[in-house]
């Protein structure tokens, strides 16, 4: 079990690959080495046979049979044929124990023929008689030919091959050990360090002290550590922000609960004001009642939002022009010195299907942001609300002539506490508005924002299934 686990590790896999590659290298070295050894062995026999033939030549062919046999035994051959010219041959010979089994020509051998011959001699265990043809050294003739036994040559080839394999095995073991240690130090140890940091960070991701400090010298590992550090830093910041938001949400929920009770009492007094005979009170009472009702509804929605859910929209058909007029009338008293003009471009008979209360909140947020953006410039400006429809959508456009949104607000436009469009803003208005529009199956998007002003577009689908699925 432990062995199988080790082989599945990076070190074990690398050790296996190293062993396989080294063994492959040994094979690639062993075959040419043995073939070269065989070639040298045969050429040495040719040289010795040439020397023996020259001894016969020097004695003018007058040597005894015992001396001839001794020369052949020292050369390790059965007979020698030395052709010095076309007319004359010098021959040393002795009895051949068996017919010649194969012939090898070493005058212009190819590497493939040498390897093939060495492989044939190694695999054939018979003691054969072979003929070897070669070129005499120092241009001492045209051709030299000898016959020898293959058995002694095969034994020496095997001994040489075993020495090569033993030496290669020692080198392979040392190489594998050195590579294993190098991998352990350069790769495995840094990877284990990264894994240890990840495990430690997972135990307490909010603890900034557990964020990894990159120390690797290998480029790829250093890049991995840098990426992990960036990820951990961002995650820690996000967790802290979510914790603060959770605490803030709890506080807002408590405040909204108490505020709802207060507004409920105020609503009772507002209901009594409706029976007053004072004309001014009669005109103001309905607006006051509607404002208090919306405030109570907002507190209830806030309590729902604190439970991480927004109520689904209650879809119904209504005239959009009346809702837009109500939103703009609610903002006109807040405009400074009448320098802001509110313009509507909504057909009186345009009917849409939506949740009027939620859409009121969305338009109120957009119009109020537009008004506040113009007021920040201390100049006159215009807030315009237009609407229309096409085959698939109703659309509502809210634009202003303000200074445009800052770049940071554009980057985090619909993110709570990050997409604030003015100094001191929280960004909750746009975030909640976008969520409410998504609940209708639509989308809230920024059409443009530059020095000439800002324009938002609300698109609500006419297909009911889209809205219900999104809700």
TrEMBL record:
Gene Ontology molecular function, alphabetical: phosphorelay sensor kinase activity
E.C. numbers: 2.7.13.3
Coiled coil: 221-248
Membrane spanning residue stretches: 14-35, 160-183
Catalytic reaction list: ATP + protein L-histidine = ADP + protein N-phospho-L-histidine
Keywords in alphabetical order: Coiled coil, Kinase, Membrane, Phosphoprotein, Transferase, Transmembrane, Transmembrane helix
Pfam family, one: HATPase_c
InterPro entries from the UniProt entry: HATPase_C_sf, HATPase_dom, His_kinase_dom, HisK_dim/P_dom, HisK_dim/P_sf, Sig_transdc_His_kin-like_C, TCS_sensor_his_kinase
CDD domains: HATPase
Gene Ontology cellular component annotations, sorted alphabetically: plasma membrane
PANTHER family in UniProt: SENSOR HISTIDINE KINASE TRCS (PTHR45436:SF5), SENSOR HISTIDINE KINASE YKOH (PTHR45436)
Localization terms from the record: Membrane
Protein name per UniProt: histidine kinase
Boundaries of every Histidine kinase domain copy: 254-464
Major place of residence: membrane
């Amino acid at each position: 079990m432990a062995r199988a686990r080790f082989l599945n590790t990076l070190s074990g896999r690398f050790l296996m690959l190293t062993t396989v590659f080294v063994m492959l290298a040994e094979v690639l070295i062993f075959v040419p080495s043995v073939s070269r050894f065989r070639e040298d062995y045969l050429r040495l026999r040719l040289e010795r046979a040439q020397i023996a033939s020259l001894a016969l030549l020097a004695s003018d062919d007058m040597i005894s049979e015992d001396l001839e046999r001794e020369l052949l035994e020292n050369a390790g051959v059965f007979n020698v044929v030395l052709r010095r010219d076309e007319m004359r041959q010098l021959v040393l010979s002795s009895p051949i124990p068996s017919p010649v089994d194969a012939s090898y020509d070493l005058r212009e051998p190819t590497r493939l023929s040498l390897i093939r011959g060495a492989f044939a001699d190694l695999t054939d265990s018979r003691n054969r008689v072979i003929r070897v043809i070669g070129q005499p050294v120092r241009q001492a003739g045209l051709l030299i030919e000898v016959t020898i036994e293959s058995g002694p040559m095969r034994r020496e080839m095997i001994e040489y091959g075993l020495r090569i394999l033993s030496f290669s095995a020692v080198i392979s073991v040392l190489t594998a050990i050195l590579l294993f240690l190098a991998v352990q130090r350069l790769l495995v140890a840094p990877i284990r360090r990264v894994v240890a940091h990840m495990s430690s960070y997972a135990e307490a991701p909010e603890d900034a002290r557990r964020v990894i400090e990159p120390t690797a010298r290998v480029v790829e590992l250093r890049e991995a550590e840098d990426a992990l550090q960036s990820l951990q830093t961002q995650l820690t910041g996000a967790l802290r922000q979510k914790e603060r938001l959770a605490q803030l949400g709890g506080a807002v929920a408590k405040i909204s609960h108490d505020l709802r009770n207060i507004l409920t009492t105020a609503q009772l007094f507002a209901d009594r004001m409706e029976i007053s005979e004072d004309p001014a009170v009669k005109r103001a009472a309905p607006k006051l009642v509607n404002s208090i009702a919306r405030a109570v509804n907002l507190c209830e929605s806030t309590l729902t939002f604190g439970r991480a859910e927004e109520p689904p929209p209650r879809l119904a058909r209504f005239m959009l022009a009346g809702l837009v007029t109500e939103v703009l009338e609610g903002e006109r008293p807040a405009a400074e010195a009448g320098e802001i003009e509110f313009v509507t471009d909504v057909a009186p008979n345009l009917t849409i299907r939506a949740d009027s209360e939620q859409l009121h909140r969305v338009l109120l947020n957009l119009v109020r942001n537009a008004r506040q953006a113009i007021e920040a410039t201390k100049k006159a400006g215009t807030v315009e609300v237009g609407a229309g429809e096409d085959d698939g959508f109703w659309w509502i456009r809210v634009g202003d002539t303000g200074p445009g949104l800052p770049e940071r607000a554009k980057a985090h436009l619909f993110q709570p506490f990050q997409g604030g469009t003015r100094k001191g803003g929280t960004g909750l208005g746009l975030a909640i508005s976008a969520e409410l529009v998504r609940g209708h199956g639509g989308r809230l998007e920024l059409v443009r924002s530059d020095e000439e002003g800002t324009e938002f577009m609300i698109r609500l689908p006419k297909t009911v299934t889209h809205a219900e699925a999104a809700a």
